[in-house]
Amino acid sequence: MSLNRKFVNVSAGVPGQKGAEIIEQRKQYVPNGVGNNTPIVVEKAHGAIVEDVDGNLYLDFAGAIGTLNAGHTPAEVVNAIKNQAENLIHSCFHVGMYESYIELAKKLTEITPGDFNKKTILLNSGAEAVENAVKIARKFTGRSGIVSFSRAFHGRTLLGMSLTSKVKPYKYKMGPFAPATYKAQFPYLTNKPEGLSVEEYTDFCINQFKDFLLTEVSPEEIAAVIMEPVQGEGGFNVPPKRFVQEIFSVCKQHGILFIADEVQTGFGRTGSFFASSQFEIEPDLITMSKSLAAGVPISAVTGRAEIMDAPNPGEIGGTYGGSPLGCVAALEVIKKIEEENLCDRANEIGEKIKDYFKELQTEYNCIFDIRGLGAMVGIEFVDPRDNQPAKDLVAALTKTCYENGLIILSAGVHSNIIRFLSPLVISDEELEEGLDIIKCALEKVVSELVTEVK
Hints:
- The protein has helices at 17-29, 63-66, 75-87, 99-111, 126-141, 158-163, 198-215, 241-254, 305-308, 324-339, 342-361, 391-403, 428-453, and strands spanning 42-46, 49-52, 57-60, 118-123, 145-149, 181-184, 222-227, 257-261, 285-288, 299-304, 367-373, 376-383, 388-389, 406-407, 409-411, 417-420.
- The protein is α/β, with parallel strands linked by helices.
- It folds into two domains: 17-60 and 341-453, Aspartate Aminotransferase, domain 1; 75-339, Type I PLP-dependent aspartate aminotransferase-like (Major domain) (Aspartate Aminotransferase, domain 2), CATH 3.40.640.
- The strands form three sheets. The chain has a seven-stranded mixed beta sheet with strand order 4-10-9-8-7-5-6, sandwiched between helices. Strands 11, 12, 13, 15 and 16 form a five-stranded antiparallel beta sheet that branches.
- It starts with 16 loop residues before the first helix and ends with a helix.
- It comes from Gottfriedia endophytica.
- Its cofactor is pyridoxal 5'-phosphate.
- One of its GO terms (biological process) is gamma-aminobutyric acid metabolic process.
- Its EC number is 2.6.1.19, 2.6.1.22.
């Protein structure tokens, strides 16, 4: 693969000698179930560049699965963590409160959609945020039912798995699952029935949901509907705006709470602080994590004050929830997103990616769909001979990319989509070099597949 590389250098091999030795230890001591998308051992990273233990340099289009909108090791965040660590690492908010928890809770009530009184609980992970949002919704409504959607992903805990729609690798032989969880159909525009317009298909999906409330579970039994405004693991699937608004409206009619799972879509990824704003809805509860604190484990649930106050003291929370290190990191990340206009930058990045692939699409008919919101862009690949999902092609493409210095991930229930989750601080030059690596990798993979067919 011939490229003029300015940022990437994988001359030590992927993995290099030192990395390969560590990976052998990993095989001995870490369970198989802890997956690894890329066979590298990272030593340090800054901005959009990752360096492994062998000195290889990679461009990062994965961002720790959407965790690093503010980039790797932003100086402001690093300094805040250092200063906090010198004074207080942990006291447990339930035992001894600290100001940064309250400051972050206040900030999240200010920047989340909704012009009403809100409160915030801080936790550790996206799955934990989902679990607590469901507990709060059930406590407030006195109902038990929770509705999620096909192709949804809400975590790997028991409840998270139960709400998640992709069986392998997340749910296979892991049951039985949590009761009173239901799945409605979510729109998938690229697979809409032939002959239907987008408007007609949207009507069809809305009517499907209304029928679901007659055939699967009564509205009076449902505490909440949980929805990713843009599905992440499900394939960066962007639903019609009217569908989201209508589901939100149906919830309001029946006293059902609407939980927006913004774990992956939050903090600028889609071109606004939260994707819910672009669908012009004000969720009752919002779950957040991933890019909240530049890689420091922390999550949050923010919602209407009266709903958040439903649980009694001690019924929600956790020992490490909203750690001092996570809180100060999060406050700096939010400040950076605001001051550096990273929401606008997300839109610029997304347009560049889409334009690049639209041009590639004229040459490669395996590129089936180009979609996304802001910098949350997904490219769906099919076998042009039968329009079936091209899982093997995407697997080969991601492998060829990391072998040539670009970290990128797949997504979708068929694993036939590449997804873009690069840091929003990535430069145009870095972005262009990464895109060129994908182009060269695609040329190589497609030519090899054609040779195999012959």
